[in-house]
Amino acid sequence: MMFNKMKLWKNQNNSSILRDKINKIKELPVPEHVAIIMDGNGRWAKKRALPRVAGHHEGMKVVRKTTMLANELGIKTLTLYAFSTENWKRPKNEVDYIMKLPEEFLGTFLPELVENNVQVKMIGYKDQLPGHTLRAIEKAMDQTRNNNGLVLNFALNYGSRLEIVDAVKKVIIDTQNGKLQSSELDEQVFSSYLMTAGFADPDLLIRTSGEIRLSNFMLWQLAYSEFWFTDVLWPDFSEEHLLEAIEVFQKRQRRFGGI
Ligand code: V0D
């Protein structure tokens, strides 16, 4: 525990202001499941006259910082939208580069994730992912299987409408098999057919980069979630921003509880 704190201090330039904010946030209930649409990496690069992939690389570093703070705060699940089923339409060189990021990320940070008791998981369509990408992620999932700290859940080649259609297909098959009576189907049972089976619904959705839309992300699961949008581009997203989002969440919860 002390080791974690020391590291956080070091990463954050020994900011005691941040330490105070973290402690204040931890006095109230924190969201159990936070989901983030990590948007604005390409725009971040363009603003600096850099190739788009430089933005994705910078964004990867922010994944690490965000993960460590989420773990420190006692958030149980952090779902990060890293690649959508629509993202294959991007230029091949960009897609190829992005598909190397899990290996680079895990090659550098997997020991740190293990050390900090983080469990790596993934939702999305695995079949279309390059073998090298999938192998790196599966190795990480395997090595962190028994960790019981933060669940770091990557949404990768994920699309929510297709997820729902596929769930309906599985429901139909199970009713035909006799495994499921149609009278038994309710919201909870249906949820168990989604890729997020076993996960609680997100309490808080964060989207960076100024777009105020869901873009086919967790349509079913976000039905009752609080939303927090910011113009900040993902590579500029800092600990301060995550703390601000959680602070807003806590204020909204308090108002709701007060009625
Ligand atoms: C690019 C911003 C880490 C969003 C973050 C393949 C766009 C950086 C991962 C990662 C991506 C995925 C799985 C895993 C470990 C790390 C990642 C993708 C894109 C899509 F087990 N960053 N990152 N994956 N970007």
What does this structure look like?
The chain is of the alpha/beta class and 259 residues long. Helix content is 49%, strand content 13%. The chain has a six-stranded parallel β-sheet with strand order 3-4-2-1-5-6, with helices on both faces. The radius of gyration is 19 Å and the shape is globular. It binds ligand V0D. Residues 38, 41, 56, 59-60, 63, 82-83, 98-99, 101-102, 105-106, 120, 137, 140, 154, 156, 234 line the site of ligand V0D. Ligand V0D binds at residues 38, 41, 56, 59-60, 63, 82-83, 98-99, 101-102, 105-106, 120, 137, 140, 154, 156, 234.
Q: N- to C-terminal separation? A: 37 Å
Task: Give, in order, the helices and strands.
Answer: HHEHHEHHEHEHHEEH
Count the helices. How many? Answer: 10
- The low-pLDDT segments are none
* Coarse shape: globular
